[in-house]
Design goal:
By secondary structure, this protein is of the alpha/beta class. The chain has 2 domains: 128 residues, Rossmann fold (3-Layer(aba) Sandwich), CATH 3.40.50.2300; 63 residues, Winged helix-like DNA-binding domain superfamily/Winged helix DNA-binding domain (Arc Repressor Mutant, subunit A, Orthogonal Bundle), CATH 1.10.10. The protein has 9 helices and 5 strands. The chain has a 5-stranded parallel sheet with strand order 2-1-3-4-5, sandwiched between helices. It is elongated and about 70 Å long.
């Protein structure tokens, strides 16, 4: 699928040269005169990367990053600004920008930065999907099996799990076998991967895991 790039210039429409560069590189490109225009437009497909071109100082110059931070599926953001603005770079990175590029940015460097930003987003999307699958599998387990799985994920021996849950060791061993069947795994390591992906190792024994928004 073609990657979608949104060029957002806070004070004027993005330069045509940047648009042409992105289009010639095979991206689906959209120009926006300001963050509000971008946020208020429904694109044919979600943006993979946003080029936020900041040309003037101001308290609200990174408002787009703040707005994207609360979205469930935000794009990667590259900030383009004048060189030497260390405060801007630090603030942008704290707000989630992948990188801050100095203007003028050579075409090859810009394309490389965009590819890196898109790949980072793809990894996050895959990780979020894997986390949601793990949460669904763990949530489907009865409470007792979740409790045993959490103990396993935290590296506890069967005897300790049995003590904490007021069960016999044999009962825990039986639950452990049931877990393997219900999770569709053959090894303890595979069961632990699912539990950790679901965040079960960080929760209380009675708390069901939750899918975290991406």
């Amino acid at each position: 699928m073609t990657r979608t790039i949104a060029i957002v210039d806070e004070h004027r429409p993005a330069d045509l040269s940047t648009f042409r560069l992105m289009a010639s590189a095979g991206y689906l490109v959209f120009n926006f005169a300001n963050p509000h225009a971008f946020l208020g437009t429904e694109l044919p497909q979600p943006a993979d990367c946003v080029l936020l071109d900041i040309r003037m100082p101001g308290a609200g110059r990174l408002d787009l990053l703040r707005a994207l931070a609360i979205l469930q599926d935000p794009p990667s953001v590259l900030v383009i600004a004048d060189g030497g603005d260390v405060a801007l770079a630090v603030e942008a990175m704290k707000l989630g920008a992948v990188d801050v590029l100095e203007r003028p940015c050579p075409p090859e460097k810009l394309i490389e930065a965009i590819e890196h930003a898109c790949m980072l987003r793809e990894r996050l999307v895959r990780a979020a999907a894997a986390r949601q699958r793990a949460v669904a599998r763990v949530t489907s387990l009865p409470l007792r099996l979740r409790q045993v799985l959490r103990g396993i994920a935290m590296g506890r021996a069967n005897k300790l799990i049995a003590y904490e849950l007021a069960l016999s060791t044999r009962t825990v061993e039986a639950y452990r076998a049931q877990l393997f069947v219900k999770l569709g795994v053959r090894t303890t390591a595979d069961a632990i991967k699912i539990a950790v992906a679901a965040g079960l190792d960080r929760l209380g024994t009675d708390a069901p895991p939750r899918a975290e928004p991406f």
